[in-house]
Specification:
The complex is a heterodimer of chains A (163) and B (408). By secondary structure, chain A is α/β, with parallel strands linked by helices. Helix content of chain A is 38%, strand content 24%. Chain B has 18 helices and 1 strand. Classes of the chains: A alpha/beta (163), B mainly alpha (408).
């Protein structure tokens, strides 16, 4: 079982990766911190799953070496945790749609949820979930808010992918 | 709606528009304080003064923290350790083992800077001379990274970076390179073209000394006051600009525009900041300290076998004739391939004049990357790219070294 953490640059993939696996990776507030993929493991029910922190990408058409690595990783993943910046929903949905078009089993972590609230951005999570037809969980990776719920809803997409 | 098959760009954006209009509402609010600073640090009129203040502050804090740690923590620790090392020295008595572990005694005492033993200089250099500055540097860098200043600096400095064939984003790689060239070189992957990666990596290896190296240059040149250190850093900065300008003119192709989003300013989360600092310190302790010890060991072996003397004789025309350095300085150039901080440490006992110390520091910084950086560069640039880059390194190091020797 391979879980890929994907999403635009600087949305908090590495922070979420640290939360899920306990593996320490460098996290910063600028796009392009992660240029290599990093592996870790997490316990999912009875079994261990491999979690991979993938460099950020805006689209599935690569323009830099870091993005090439990201897209190469996609071939080997079983399920994607798509990390979406809640303060930049519109831009982040582009990669989301591309991933959905490839029929990747996916759960969305609607990250930086705290900042979105501060900025007065209100997102109807249930509605978004219905429109995209895939689970959406608001998270704050840096503090750990919402991570438990994200993990508890992972099996929903896993079942869908095996059927 | 069910999502099928691949769509065109336009269809995707139309779909995104439909989704966003249904799920997102944005309420009105005023600019926050952080957003006002955010705007001010990008506009040239206010941005450049802010950048200068930030850099001066950074420099001062690194100095203050680094010197403070050395003076109040590490030197006292080594003062306690000295009697133990002296006891061991007596126990061992003269011989090869003593020379490797303790080194040569200076007037019957251990001199941590000159003795060159594994348990003396081998510990003192990484822990009491380099680690304090590594700590101080990454403390400040981590703060700048997490608050979101770096992308703003990138935008501000963009037009300058275009003159050397890059764009603003590359400044982040150079700043990382100041900590250690290895992550610095890796981070050039975010640049769009092979040309940019080549220019950025080559300039980094030549003109961006890592903090370990700078700490030792401070030790070597610093005793002549701020002037010597100033000349070294200014020379490297000029090399960075001029060489970048030339590479941009000579290499085919051109560099794309900067395309980068600016994250909002965030107040760093202290837990994450400290964790990152600890990870980087651990990286230094695990990856660098063993090489320092290996470097000191190899120095000893090479001296005992007489190899240093041999290379010294062969390289004397260049080192003594052209660069005006003593023949013993060749040993530093050999060890510099392994660890540059050890190499500069080897120059300390030579009693160099100020101009010799400056020439040696600049040449050591430029002539070739350390082995860890070399491995990463070869991976990123390919063997041919690395060979080209290395030719530029050696040629420019010689040229600048000879020029400095003539001027100073």
């Amino acid at each position: 079982m391979k879980i890929l953490l994907m999403g635009n640059p600087n949305v908090g993939k590495s922070a979420l990766f640290s939360r899920l696996t306990g593996v320490n990776v460098i996290v910063s507030n600028y796009p392009g911190t992660t240029v290599e993929f990093k592996k870790g493991t997490m316990k999912l029910g009875e079994q261990w799953a491999e979690v991979i922190d993938v460099p950020g990408a805006y689209t599935l058409e690569p323009t830099t070496k870091a993005e090439e690595i990201a897209i190469e990783m996609l071939k080997n993943g079983d399920v994607v945790i798509n990390v979406v910046d809640a303060t930049n929903l519109e831009r982040n949905l582009y990669l989301t749609l591309q991933l959905l078009e490839r029929k990747m089993p996916m759960i969305i972590a609607l990250n930086i949820w705290d900042d979105a609230k501060h900025k007065g951005i209100i997102i109807d999570v249930e509605r978004l979930e219905k429109l995209l037809n895939t689970p959406v969980v608001p998270t704050v990776a840096i503090t750990g808010e919402g991570i438990k719920k994200l993990v508890s809803r992972l099996p929903e997409v896993l079942c869908a992918s095996t059927n | 709606m069910p999502v099928n098959d691949e769509r065109t760009d336009e269809q995707r954006w139309a779909e995104i528009g439909r989704i966003v209009s249904q799920v997102q509402t944005v309420t009105h609010r005023h600019h926050t304080f952080l957003e006002r600073i955010g705007d001010a640090s990008i506009k040239p009129l206010t941005g450049f003064p802010i950048a200068i203040v930030v850099l001066l502050f950074t420099f001062q804090i690194i100095r203050l923290v680094g010197e403070g740690l050395i003076g109040y923590v590490f030197e006292p620790i080594f003062n306690v350790y000295t009697p133990l090392a002296m006891k061991l020295s007596e126990l061992l008595g003269p011989g090869f083992v003593h020379d490797v572990l303790i080194g040569t005694l200076v007037e019957g005492e251990i001199d941590y800077v000159q003795s060159m033993g594994l348990l003396t200089t081998g510990l003192f250099v990484p822990f009491a001379m380099v680690l304090p500055y590594v700590f101080a540097f990454y403390l400040v860098l981590g703060f700048l990274e997490d608050c979101g200043y770096l992308p703003r600096l990138a935008v501000l400095i963009d037009s300058l970076m275009h003159k050397i064939g890059l764009h603003g984003l590359a400044i982040v790689s150079f700043l990382l390179g100041l900590g250690c060239n290895v992550p610095g070189a890796l981070s050039t992957r975010v640049l769009e073209t092979r040309r940019q990666v080549f220019i950025a990596a080559t300039l980094m290896a030549i003109a961006v000394p890592c903090v370990a190296q700078i700490a030792m240059i401070v030790g070597l040149v610093g005793k002549y006051g701020a002037k010597g250190l100033g000349i070294v850093l200014f020379t490297l900065f000029m090399v960075w600009m001029v060489l970048g300008y030339l590479l941009n003119k000579i290499l085919k192709g051109k560099s794309p525009e900067i395309f980068m989003e600016i994250p909002p300013y965030r107040i760093p989360y202290w837990g994450a900041l400290l964790k990152k600092l600890w990870m980087r310190i651990r990286f230094f302790l695990r990856e660098a300290v063993p090489y320092v010890l290996l470097g000191v060991f190899i120095v000893n072996v090479l001296y005992v076998l007489g190899i240093i003397e041999l290379i010294g004789k062969i390289a004397a025309p260049i080192v003594v004739g052209l660069l005006g350095l003593p023949a013993e300085a060749v040993a530093a150039l050999v060890v510099g391939f392994l660890r540059k901080d050890v190499a500069i440490g080897m120059l300390l006992p030579l009693g160099l004049t100020m101009s010799q110390a400056i020439v040696a520091s600049v040449v050591l910084a430029m002539y070739f990357p350390c082995v860890a950086t070399f491995a990463v560069l070869t991976k990123e640039l390919g063997i041919v790219g690395m060979a080209k880059s290395a030719a530029i390194m050696i040629a420019s190091a010689l040229l600048v070294g000879v020029l400095l020797n003539l001027i100073l």
